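Researcher: Sequence recovery benchmark, item below. Answer with residues only.
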């Protein structure tokens, strides 16, 4: 049995576990990683067979040499005496003939059989697969570790030893892994993180007895990183430093570990509401992802769970389980509204259609790949499978909003699978509010006629062991991903204006997978379903 390697790749394998593979960009979806693991199993199989064959050859040669050594072990003073004693011994003579006939033929057979070329051909065939990870995947995996560090304030020593927020795993990092992570962080401009990674590499190199990399080399790299950090810090104002990847003080004065402890000890005084800064949004988002409560106990205790028929006769015999998370913005979670069988069916429909998630371009009309969102998505029409039409109807019954695609009332069902440290930075779901006339002119006319995204309905298709919450930094609320549940919120106020408090994002996945499915409900078709108000304050 092959023992798991304690490498960066091993840690990444534990941080995401799930289903099948499509082409390239493996780090963006956990479904792709299972395909990559399957590839590695094939590689291990080829290498295991080659190693066994190579070992068999070596064993044959060693047996030959050991037998010969038993002959020359005869205590003689010169070559003539040796030859006389060996040649005059019938047992030695027999064994000599055996070695030069039977044993030698076996060695010749092994030497002529080129197992190496066979292994090379098989490995080349595996490496040519379209879903084989590339440099971008490795870069993305490294960036994901730093993102997880920043969001969850992971202790780097715990992280390198496989402890993910109290969950101990066998996925550990070597000194060489930490050295690479430090160089990646430094190249990305995260100079504070780089120093921390180099420090951990130095400690691990010592505990490994300099087996993989020598402490002297790490110490030299660390000294240069400290110098680069302190040089970059010179002349920067304190308010600027808080938005950079630098510590507040020179590392020559206060060690990195002490400065990190000071940063992590600061809590509280979170600002909520519409008129907060980008820094506040980021701080709130990270705090919510870590499970901190930004709202008072009194406010949170006012949010109740209850059974609701939503005014629908269909739901009176089987009311939905509704949990309220926020009154402003209106944010709810409905539990046990999609079955395990339905979830698996949706996944299987989505996997063949997966593509890298896109975000809307600056001009509104184009879409582009962006680092703010690491996932893969598929778009499913209601007529693709009867199940999808039933889900649309179910959403309509629960929300009271029109969802028929034939009436342009809602978009196609989007299924998303998040990858290594998969996340989506805080954003608004509405598409047209707050856009200029010029930007609106560049949007397709069909989008304009459908109206903006009045509401969002998001199914959670699995439980996430660590991370993956949906966080609303301005409202101070986070919704945990629970399999079979769905989150629902209004993106627009009843007066038709955008609701800035609905800014939300997907917390990075720390451990496990994350599958979600979104139905964005559009505005125009809701004329008789969601009446508007003229009051500008509601």
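Model:
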């Amino acid at each position: 049995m092959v023992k798991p390697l304690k490498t960066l790749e091993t840690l990444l394998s534990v941080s995401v576990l799930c289903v099948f593979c499509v082409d390239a960009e493996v780090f963006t979806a956990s479904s792709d990683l299972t395909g990559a693991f399957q590839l590695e199993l094939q590689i291990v199989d080829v290498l295991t067979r080659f190693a066994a064959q190579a070992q068999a050859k070596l064993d044959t040669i060693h047996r030959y040499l050991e037998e010969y050594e038993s002959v020359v072990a005869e205590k003689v003073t010169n070559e003539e005496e040796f030859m006389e004693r060996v040649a005059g011994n019938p047992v030695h003579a027999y064994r000599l003939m055996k070695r030069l006939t039977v044993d030698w033929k076996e060695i010749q057979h092994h030497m002529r059989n080129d197992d190496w070329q066979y292994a090379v051909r098989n490995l080349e065939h595996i490496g040519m697969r379209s879903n084989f990870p590339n440099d971008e995947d490795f870069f993305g995996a490294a960036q994901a570790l730093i993102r997880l560090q920043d969001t969850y304030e992971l202790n780097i020593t715990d992280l390198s030893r496989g402890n993910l927020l109290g969950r101990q795993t066998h996925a550990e990092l070597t000194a060489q892994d930490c050295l690479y992570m430090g160089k990646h962080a430094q190249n990305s401009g995260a100079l504070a993180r780089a120093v921390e990674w180099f420090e951990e590499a130095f400690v691990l190199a010592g505990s490994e007895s300099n087996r993989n990399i020598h402490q002297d080399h790490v110490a030299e790299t660390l000294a240069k990183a400290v110098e680069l950090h302190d040089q970059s810090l010179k002349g920067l104002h304190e308010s600027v430093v808080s938005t950079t990847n630098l510590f507040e003080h020179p590392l020559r004065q206060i060690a990195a570990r002490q400065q990190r402890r000071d940063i992590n000890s600061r809590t509280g005084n979170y600002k909520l509401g519409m008129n907060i800064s980008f820094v506040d949004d980021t701080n709130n988002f990270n705090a919510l992802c870590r499970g901190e409560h930004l709202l008072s106990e009194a406010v949170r205790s006012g949010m109740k769970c209850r059974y609701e028929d939503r005014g629908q006769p269909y739901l009176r015999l089987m009311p939905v389980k509704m949990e309220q998370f926020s009154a402003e913005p209106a944010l709810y979670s409905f539990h046990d509204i999609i079955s395990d069988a339905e979830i698996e069916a949706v996944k299987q429909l989505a996997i063949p259609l997966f593509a890298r998630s896109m975000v809307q371009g600056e001009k509104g009309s184009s879409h582009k790949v962006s680092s703010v969102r690491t996932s893969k998505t598929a778009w499913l029409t209601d007529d693709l499978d009867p199940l999808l039409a039933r889900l649309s109807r179910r959403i309509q019954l629960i929300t009271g909003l029109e969802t028929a695609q034939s009436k342009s009332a809602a978009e196609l069902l989007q299924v998303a699978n998040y990858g290594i440290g998969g996340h989506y930075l805080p954003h608004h779901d509405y598409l047209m509010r707050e856009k200029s006339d010029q930007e609106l002119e560049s949007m397709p006319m069909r989008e304009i006629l459908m109206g903006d995204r009045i509401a969002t309905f998001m199914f959670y298709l699995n439980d996430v062991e660590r991370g993956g919450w949906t966080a609303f930094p301005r409202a101070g609320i986070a919704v945990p991903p629970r399999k079979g549940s769905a989150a629902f919120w209004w993106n627009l106020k009843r007066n038709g204006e955008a609701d800035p408090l609905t800014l939300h994002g997907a917390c990075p996945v720390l451990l496990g997978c994350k599958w979600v499915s979104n139905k964005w409900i559009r505005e125009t078709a809701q004329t008789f379903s969601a009446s508007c108000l003229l009051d500008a304050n509601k």
